[in-house]
Amino acid sequence: MLDIRTLVSVDKVADFERNPHVPIQTKPGPSVEDSGYLHDPDVQLMLRAKQGDDGAFTQLVKSYQDRLTNIFYHMVQSQEAAEDLAQDVFLRIYRARHGYLPTARFSTWLFRIANNLASNSRRAKGRRKEVNLPGSESGPLGANPAEQLALEKSGLMPNRQLDRRELQAVVQQAMEQLNERQRMAVLLHKYEDMSYEDIAEAMELTPTAIKSLLSRARENLRQALEPYMQLGKEVK
Amino acid sequence: MEKTLRLSADQREDLVAYLDGELPDQKAQSIDQVLARSEVARHEVEALARTWEMLDVLPTPKAPPEFTERTMTTLKVGETPFVLAEQAWFGILKQVTIATVWVAAIGLSGWFGFKATNLWMSNPTRQLLEDLPTLQKLDQFQEVESKDFLERLQKSQLFHETSEKG
pLDDT tens digits, residue range A177-192? Predict the structure, then answer.
């Protein structure tokens, strides 16, 4: 008798055993009519764009431009680079419109492209030699806001209410200490409210891997930010 | 109540999924029981939840107002079909080709004209070459006063026997 485990991953089998009413996801057939995602309004817009409706594509751009810019900003720490990457995502989607088939939610597909572009961008940035100058003007607390606040907390400097910008700098630094995958998973979950399954599909990982990523990421954030939780409560 | 009861390593791994509502019911109930009994565990959960809330202070930059129009224009430009005749290099190549053809045509015409002229028009030099034997004996021929006399002399065969004997 053929063992189903030879056909699907063990994770999917475990999911099915827990939730037998949820069908195992297999690769959908090529027909648009067979797609289970036609209820997605963004999929409908994309199908119209496929037929040549540029107005429909414009609506998609307007819907996602801010969301993409925000995600990319937190990945590459540059507004200009974030806008360029967001535009690249739309360019790739536009070029692929003639062969578009709704095999996933539109947002899942879009953020999968975004994840790939962010990875490519980081790799390209790593290849370029960059000189890191002392970031004395990088923020209100200077180059190392965590160290600055630690000094204040230790009593060597007078305690004071934490400025929102200062807390922002501390949180940003904590985010930058996460690795690329952890950060992307956190951003997709925080800002896009995506489920573990959707994040897994966007990042081309399993839901179990996403659970592990988010667990480690949030533990890292907790360790970095716990000293400032009291200060954070006193934000102006 | 066991205030110091801590989460196990597996439970700590599941804690974030528990907060996100992504744990299966059985595991979630297990965490609930630990949290109900342990103050330390509740503190850990609160710290994780609070950390998550702190991310709300992060900036959320938006795309500029002209982003949509700029993007659609970029997309449309990228879709412009490639027309060979509209390329700058093609225009230059076309002009160079036409000039080359004209030069070749003129050159060829000139060569053919030269050859035709040589064939159909008289060449004084050629005529001179053909008359050269006569010119070489011109002194002797000038001593003969008339041509008729030479023709009659030839018909008389007066010198014919002499040449055969000689």
Answer: 999 999 999 999 999 9
Whole-model pTM: value is 0.65
Residue B67 contacts A where some CB pair is shorter than 8 Å: yes
Alpha helices in chain A (DSSP H): 10-18, 41-50, 54-76, 79-95, 106-127, 145-154, 164-176, 180-191, 196-203, 207-225, 229-233
Whether residues B71 and A18 touch (CB distance < 8 A) is answered with: no
Q: What is the pLDDT of residue A222?
A: 93
Whether B75 and A94 lie within 8 Å, measured CB to CB: yes
What's the length of chain A?
236
Alpha-carbon A212 to chain mean position: 15
CA distance B36 to B42: 8
Q: Give the domain ranges of chain B.
A: 9-57, 85-120, 130-156
Tell if the CB–CB gap between B62 and A215 is shorter than 8 Å. no
User: Is the sign of the CA dihedral B114, B116, B117, B122 positive or negative?
Assistant: positive
Tokens for B71, please give them. 């993007």
CA distance A56 to chain B (A): 11
Number of Cβ within a 10 Å radius of residue B161: 9
With CA atoms as reference, the chain B residue closest to A231 would be: B54
Domains of chain A as residue ranges with CATH: 35-126 (1.10.1740.10), 145-233 (1.10.10.10)
> Which residues on A lie below 8 Å from B50 (Cβ)?
229, 232
CA distance B111 to A77: 74
- Residue A168 to residue B70, Cβ atoms within 8 A: no
